[in-house]
Amino acid sequence: MSLPNNTVALTDILASTKNFIQFIQSKIKLLGLLIILGGVLGLVYYFITSPKYQATATFIVEEKSSSSGLAGMAGQLGFDISSLTGGNAGLFDGDNILEIIKSRNIIESVLLSKVDVADSANNKTLADLYYETNGLKNKLEGKSNELAILNFSSIKTGAVHTILQDSVLYMMIEKINKNNLNVQRTNKKGSIISISTNSTSPQFSKLFSERLLNETSEMYIKIKVGNLSSNINRLQNKADSLQALLNRTSYQSAALNTFDANEAYKSSAVPEEMSQRDKLVLNTLYAEVVKNVEILRISLINQKPIIQVLDLPKFPLVNQQKSFLIIELIGILAGLVIGLLYLLLAYTGNNKS
């Protein structure tokens, strides 16, 4: 029984495979050359890529809120606690905090911090360290002499930057956000946030992750309780003023007190009565203001979030760059696969012709 024309016999497959193997053997030098080329390219890639040291800091934010009973008590006294504390309630909800951590204001503040705070003689900042170790200086210094000697150690807190400093800082922040910084939740529904920094300098990676966490925590607490704290300070100043006035009134009442006033001169008791009345009014006002201050202080305690640091990076940091053997193996396998595909295409083309 003869096979149909569109059926491929097993003997044909074996014959084609044998012929292809013989073709490979005839081109073994070319295949070996491609394998060697892949190994060389892997070697070049290993030496041109910079090491990457990754430092990761993780933290969790425990929110607090004032109780409804406290809010009701404050409402009876004429204070709306929710209006004082609720304006920032959604500021850090969802993924907002992730964007705040990567904001220019926070990253710039971290970059301008000193590398070694304890050494007053060393003014080098994290911005100087990043500029020198992450290839930015080598890339820019040939463009002008100012870029070759640029430094950020001369920038004072609150001082205006030069146009050149501001431009390079902006470039750094963009590069860090794109290539060096990764901020994420450890899981989608969790409240644990990780800050990972990778760079060619282990010192920069460690310090940047730690200080970015600290700067974010300080700003977070300042925003959450800043408005309430300012109201407490304002009321405390009012209470202090009332207390001083009440003390003066008490001394005045004591001086005007008449134990045995003559019936004919009862009008002399009028100043004493007025002083006592002022004292009573001041006592009432002072008591109410002090009560309101204490209520707001309790609310401040309930509103203040707890930033719990779970993990901080420690030396030595692990180099995230792939090992030499792995890169070489990948290069050799890539050369082998490309060589075999090339020979297969060439073998197919010869058979068709």
Number of domains: 2
Approximate helicity band: 55-70%
- The gyration radius over C-alpha positions equals 38 Å
What percentage of the residues does DSSP assign to strands (E)? 5-15%
- In this structure, how is the largest beta sheet organized? 4 strands, antiparallel
The helix/strand class is: alpha+beta
Task: Report the uncertain regions.
Answer: 66-70, 83-89, 263-267
Q: Please tally the helical runs, counting DSSP H or I stretches of 4 or more residues.
A: 13
What spatial order of strands do you see in the largest sheet?
2-3-1-4
Task: List the helices and strands in order.
Answer: HHEHHHHHHHHEEHHEH
The number of distinct β-strands equals 4
Overall shape: elongated
First-last Cα distance: 31 Å
Mean pLDDT: 76
What does it look like?
With 353 residues, this protein is of the alpha+beta class. The chain has two domains: 10-49 and 321-352, no CATH class; 53-256 and 268-311, no CATH class. Helices cover 62% and strands 8% of the residues. It has helices at residues 10-26, 28-48, 68-76, 81-85, 96-101, 104-111, 126-133, 136-140, 145-148, 163-180, 202-256, 270-303, 324-352; strands at residues 53-62, 181-185, 192-199, 306-311. Strands 2-3-1-4 form a four-stranded antiparallel sheet.
Secondary-structure blueprint of this entry?
Layout: H1 10-26, H2 28-48, E1 53-62, H3 68-76, H4 81-85, H5 96-101, H6 104-111, H7 126-133, H8 136-140, H9 145-148, H10 163-180, E2 181-185, E3 192-199, H11 202-256, H12 270-303, E4 306-311, H13 324-352
Antiparallel strand pairs: 1-3, 1-4, 2-3
Helix pairs in contact: 2-13, 3-12, 6-11, 11-12
